[in-house]
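Dear Dr. H.,

I hope your travels went smoothly. While you were away I took the liberty of generating a structure for the chain from your last submission, since the lab meeting agenda had it listed for discussion. I wanted you to have the full record in hand beforehand rather than looking at slides cold. The sequence, exactly as received, is reproduced here:
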Amino acid sequence: MQASDIAGMWAKYSAPLSALGNPVMSTRINIQDQSGAVQPVHCVDKGEVLSK
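The corresponding predicted structure, in token form, is as follows:
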């Protein structure tokens, strides 16, 4: 999933559980950068796991 944030603005991201490998049980979800470059601080205000 690619992120393109605008400073000072809210952004909503969605990812299907299949993107996580369809785990049976998860105890932790990490959000990380894959570029290896220094990144500004990002705050996560809310996280949800929903079933359809």
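Two observations you may find useful: The chain has a mean pLDDT of 75. The radius of gyration is 13 Å.

With kind regards,
E. W.
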